[in-house]
Amino acid sequence: MNISMALKSWHCFRQFVEANVPKIEVRVIECPIDLSEIARWAPESQHGALNSFIGFVRSVNLGRAVVAVEYDCFIPLCEKTFKTIALEAVQKWGEDTRLMIIHRHGRLSIGEASVAIVATTGHRDEAYRITRYVIEEIKMRAPIWKKEFYQDGETDWVRGHALCQHRKVDHHEHGGNSSCGGALLSHEARQS
Amino acid sequence: MIKINVKLFGAFKKYISTGEISLFIEQPCLAGNLKKNIQKHLLDSVPEFSDLNLVFESALATSERILDNHEYIDGSEKLALLPPVCGG
Questions:
Q1: Which of A117, A118, A139, B17 fits a disulfide with A52 by CB distance 3.0 to 4.6 angstroms?
Q2: CB–CB of A78/A103 below 8 Å?
Q3: pLDDT one-digit tens code per residue, A103-158
């Protein structure tokens, strides 16, 4: 086989792989997120940019020392919500976008990755916008709840964003009286 | 009257560690009224249940979607009560 034939074979193989790799991949998992998988999430040949967001469990929240967190998740609706958010991003920023969303459930230690979002697109502007959009929408819409374990032995479920629709949204995240409201509004609608 | 099971998530698990309750409802039943029934069930059966806004701030859902308070529950779908969310 000469060089040109080898290159043509490689080109055909790459086209086959690209045609058969899912554009959108979403997962809720109990095991640790494999960050090397994120690194292997290669862009397609027409993509010039890859952007990723990875959230980690931190050791302090609102002045309290945290030793661990536990994520509760309504998995079937959560994965459906991830897919909906991903499709919205693709519609907004390009049909050829590739997007992966992974979220943990169960108990996590400090420093563990809780969520990973990877987007590959034609240009860097869309890649940044997509990952920002996705994480903000996940925080507002995905049926996931976080319980914090504190150094003093206490635990608490973190309050968040209401999903029901009968009043306007109140975005107070921690404590207080978060009112019930239309949290299904898109990020842009909430900004306007 | 029909018996329905409702899965509970997040802060509800402080009060119901199994994460599920069963209650009887009259049909037809609106989702908003079911939430009131759930509130009453928790107040009656869990002495330490003190978060009176939690049910009001939560959304009823199936595994496919959030239900509007004005939708009717027919008992055929598996239901879940979702408190305010904070993933990511």
A1: A118
A2: yes
A3: 999 999 999 999 999 999 999 999 999 999 999 999 999 999 999 999 999 999 99
pTM for this structure? Answer: 0.83
Q: Does A56 touch chain B (CB under 8 A)?
A: no
CB contact under 8 A, A184 and B65: no
Question: What confidence tier does A15 reach under pLDDT thresholds 50, 70, 90?
Answer: low
The token duo for A126 is 């869309």
Strands (E), chain A: 24-29, 49-56, 60-61, 64-73, 98-104, 106-109, 113-121, 144-150, 155-157
Neighbour tally for A191: CB within 10 Å: 8
Does B82 contact chain A (CB < 8 Å)? yes
Rounded to whole angstroms, how far apart are CA atoms A146 and B84? Answer: 10
Is the CB of residue A83 less than 8 Å from the CB of residue A28? Answer: no
Structure tokens that stand for B32 in this block: 């908003």
Measure B30 CA to nearest chain A CA, in Å.
Answer: 14
Predicted pLDDT at B1? 85
